[in-house]
Amino acid sequence: MTIAIHGAGVSDGIAIGRVHLVERSQFEIPEYAIAAAGIEAEIRRFQDALALARLQLRAVRDHIPRAAAPGIAAFIDTHLLMLEDVTLTSEPVRIIRERRCNAEWALKLQRDALVAVFDEMDDAYLRTRKDDVEHVVNRVQRILLNHGPMRHEQPDSRLRGYILLADDLSPADTVLMQHHGIAAFAIQYGGPTSHTAILARSLGIPGIVGLHGGRQLIGEDELIIVDGGAGVVIVDPDERVLAHYRRRQDERSVCLRQLDALRAQPARTIDRCDVTLRANVELPLDFVLARDVGAEGIGLYRTEYLFLNRADRPGEEELFTTYRDLIKDMQGMPVTMRTLDVGGEKALPGQTQQGEANPALGLRAVRLCLREPGLFLPQLRAIIRASAFGNTRLMIPMLSNLDELAQVLALIDDIRDQFRRLGIAFDATMPIGGMVEVPAAALCADAFAAQLDFVSLGTNDLIQYTLAIDRVNEGVSYLYDPLHPAVLRLIAMTLAAGRRAGKPVAMCGEMAGDARYTRLLLALGLREFSVHPRNLLAIKHIINTTELQLIEPLAESFLAAGSQHEQRTLLREINTGLAVAAE
User: Fold this and answer.
1) Residue 36 has pLDDT above 80, yes or no
2) What integer best gives the mean pLDDT of the chain?
């Protein structure tokens, strides 16, 4: 019988194939005492397991095709770095010595402590970094417990065209999937911001996460369809369903070829209005993808990546070197560097963390950076120094009042004065912008636009704060609505403030990369989009097939809409080309 199981699609595409169930052993971690005379031997056993885990990951990295984007190796390198980190190399050794316990148990205790820290984090991206801890620890535990490699980790051409179904998959698993020709994956756990999901999007492997119950309903070698865009797995499809999805596969192939032809074309509406299309990036791989799809620069570089999965904070020199190289690689195109956006329950190495009742409303982003100049100043200095090597823009996240902006601008002025005295090169004209992510900033957009060189709408948080909705909370996430009249009015208000001040306003939140809203945002006056590189060509196609004079009259109707039904009708009218000029 044909059934459909829903999860969260994290990588677009359709795959039809037989299932291979990835059976991961549920580790029963033993606890036993080690005699004093055996402690050093137990420590050596643990260190040997770490060394073998490193060898395994290096072998995975060697499977990455030479023609692949260089940033793909960064995912494996992250896990290799974790295997060098004192939190996973020295702490278990200390536990073995102090408790006189076996290596497996010491590693489990340290794993539990690390995961507990990540579980308390408010930010979805940082919270899912615990997956990396789990993946690395599980690899070491398998070695300690003498578990052999799983089938998909070994060369096996018989898996080509199969779809992996698992509780979870690591980035190393994802690299091996491509190497073995596996068509798609679906996992019970994980989230859209996990490294596995990010890597799957970069490699173009259709994938679904959060497929609760999938393992209970799908058997080995069963025929299924994975629709990564819709986030659905269809089990035991009949001929009619198979024909439908095969036709969609063919249509998608044609569409991708057509989109590929847009790489070198400008983003320009039918009535000759130019639109700027930039990319959101965080990993080195994303910069490569941004160039490949013809992005007009980087509209959002999430700089948090360099601060994660490590025991220490990066210093000014490390940050400067990384920023400089990325800016030079963009060959004159703008790179918009968002300053560190962490805080609340999102502890960084060396950060004194106190529990907060409402971390999303607490000490985070620019608030944390102003509170901890030892964290903020090295990054500001690195960005300002890197500005000498290319087209650099600095962007401040989560501004809510003008005093915060004044403090940041004063710090920047002090650094520039110091660099002038020391003869350190920098771009004195580097644009400084701010993100509108809270309703207070949108309501005061005129005041912010007057003091900034540009503004960027961060719709993920703007929607969340406007509607008092935690979008990762399954109990209320259904209320997360980009089309809510309050959200649209705040967006329109910010765009109007930018026009009055003569300052560009971009949008870098997920709403900008959702093709359903492209024409609506154009009608409201948005002319700068920053989206994930994988979405950029689809957004460009919609822009290039839009006639502004037909849709702009509907903007006021959207802002005045009183019901979701009315909004959906208007959205359908805009997106199906039925819009007509108001009489």
Assistant:
1) yes
2) 86
Check pLDDT > 50 for residue 24.
yes
pLDDT one-digit tens code per residue, 301-318:
999 878 865 667 889 999
* Mean pLDDT, rounded, for 85-92: 88
Q: What is the rounded CA–CA span in Å between residue 562 and residue 547?
A: 26
Whether residue 445 contacts residue 498, with contact meaning beta carbons closer than 8 Å, is answered with yes
- CATH code 1.10.274.10 for 36-144: yes
Query: How far is Cα 8 from Cα 5, in angstroms, rounded to an integer?
Result: 10
Q: What is the CATH number of domain 267-546?
A: 3.20.20.60
Q: What is the CA radius of gyration of the chain?
A: 25
- In whole angstroms, what is the distance from residue 421 CA to residue 415 CA? 10
In tens, the pLDDT along 314-330 reads: 899 999 999 999 999 99
CB neighbourhood size of 81 (10 A): 14
Task: Answer yes or no: 565 catalytic.
Answer: no
Is the model's pLDDT at 551 over the cut of 60? yes
Q: What is the CATH number of domain 3-23+151-257?
A: 3.50.30.10
**29: pLDDT strictly greater than 60:** yes
**Region 509-531 average pLDDT:** 94
Q: How many Cβ atoms from other residues are within 10 Å of residue 226's Cβ?
A: 32
Ramachandran region, residue 30 (left: φ > 0; alpha: ψ -120 to 50; beta: rest): beta
Q: Is 273 a catalytic residue?
A: no
**Which one of 195, 484, 532, 541 is the catalytic residue?**
195
DSSP string, 494-520: HHHHHHHHT--EEE-SGGGG-GGGHHH
Domain residue extents for the chain: 3-23+151-257, 36-144, 267-546
Cα–Cα distance for residue pair 518/538, rounded to 1 Å: 10
Residue whose entry in the numeric block shows the structure tokens 């920053």: 530
Length of the chain measured in residues: 583
User: Could you read off the pLDDT of 127-145 as tens digits, one per residue?
Assistant: 556 778 888 898 899 899 8
Distance (Å, whole) CA 21 – CA 185: 10
| Amino acid at position 450, single letter | A
- Tens of pLDDT, residue by residue over 216-274, are 888 888 999 999 988 899 999 999 999 999 999 998 888 888 888 899 899 999 999 99
Q: Which residues contact 410 (CB under 8 A, 6 or more apart)?
A: none
Q: How are strands ordered across the β-sheet holding 163-166? A: 3-6, 232-235, 223-227, 14-21, 163-166, 184-187, 207-209, 8-11
Residue 314 identity (one-letter amino acid): P
CA angle (555 as vertex; 552, 559 as ends), nearest 5:
175
Q: Could you give the residue ranges of the DSSP H alpha helices within 31-102?
A: 39-62, 73-82, 86-89, 91-99
Which residue in 44, 59, 20, 50 sits closest to 142, CA to CA? 50
Question: Rounded to 5 degrees, what are φ and ψ at 314?
Answer: -70, 140
Catalytic residue chosen out of the listed positions 101, 369, 444, 508: 508
- The tokens describing 500, both together, are 């009055």
Non-local (6+) Cβ contacts of 387 within 8 A are: 327, 394, 426, 427, 430
Show Cβ contacts of residue 312 under 8 Å, excluding neighbours closer than 6 positions. 349, 350
Q: What is the spatial distance between Cα 194 and Cα 309, in angstroms, rounded to a whole number?
A: 13
